Amino acid sequence: MLLLVSPINPKEAIEAIKGGADIIDVKNPKEGSLGASFPWIIREIRRITPDNMLVSATLGDVPYKPGTISLAALGALTAGADYIKVGLYGTKNSKEAVDVMENVVKTIKDEKKEAFVVAAGYADAHRVGSLDPMEIPNVAYEAGADVAMLDTAVKDGKTLFDFLSVEELRDFVREAHNLGLKAALAGSIKKEQLRPLDEIGCDIVGVRGAACVGGDRNTGTIHRSAVTELKRLIEAI
Ligand SMILES: O=C[C@H](O)COP(=O)(O)O
């Protein structure tokens, strides 16, 4: 299981890299769970990240605006991201979600075939009126994306496991794999939840809060010691 860590700036990105993260995921929590960062921050983080490591950028908790999101995707790619995440927030059904995702896939793959496209849904979708999380693998598949992901939309201390049972998460991962996709899971993941995620076959676990010290995901900052511990726990499973 790979460890994706979400820094907000280059200083935190260095901590994540030194701590042993596998994927550096540039994020702006001020704009939401999957809040988009700025091109110059993505570019600088790409510059300081070793070439053999993926840099991810999220396009935000996106509305149902395929054109707008396609342009944002091109911006993230141009700034240096090679793992593009789309938070399917304002898409109310799978038809709208596929519409957004297939345009993002076209945008990215036309420019850089080997870049990854991630369709991200929310385990607590019912709290924000977005798409049923169990539909995400099929949306990702239909659109030609590479990864089906879940996070939580509302960051209030509740974790992924508060909204979906281990059995439901196992089904999500199984369906993604059956469709030839990778499965990524996030949502205020705690250290003790790494093992169950690995056991159900999760390919990528995403964290911010658990990699921060001196506060939570908003008030704390990523420190290499916390990242190293997460990495060590994963390796020990
Ligand atoms: O992509 C993963 C997110 O950054 C998860 O953040 P969180 O662990 O604070 O919920």
UniProtKB/TrEMBL annotation:
GO biological process: methanofuran biosynthetic process
Active-site residues per Swiss-Prot or TrEMBL entry: K27, K85
Biochemical pathway: Cofactor biosynthesis; methanofuran biosynthesis
UniProt GO MF annotations: carbon-carbon lyase activity
Catalytic reaction(s) noted: 2 D-glyceraldehyde 3-phosphate = 4-(hydroxymethyl)-2-furancarboxaldehyde phosphate + phosphate + 2 H2O
Documented EC number(s): 4.2.3.153
InterPro entries: 4HFCP_synth, 4HFCP_synth_arc, RibuloseP-bd_barrel
Matching SUPFAM superfamilies: Aldolase (SSF51569), Ribulose-phoshate binding barrel (SSF51366)
Entry keyword Lyase: yes
Alphabetically ordered keywords of this record: Lyase, Schiff base
Regions annotated as coiled coil: none
Keyword Lyase: yes
Function comment: Catalyzes the formation of 4-(hydroxymethyl)-2-furancarboxaldehyde phosphate (4-HFC-P) from two molecules of glyceraldehyde-3-P (GA-3-P).
Similarity-based family: Belongs to the MfnB family.
The protein's name in its UniProt record: (5-formylfuran-3-yl)methyl phosphate synthase
Organism: Methanothermobacter tenebrarum
Gene that specifies this protein: mfnB
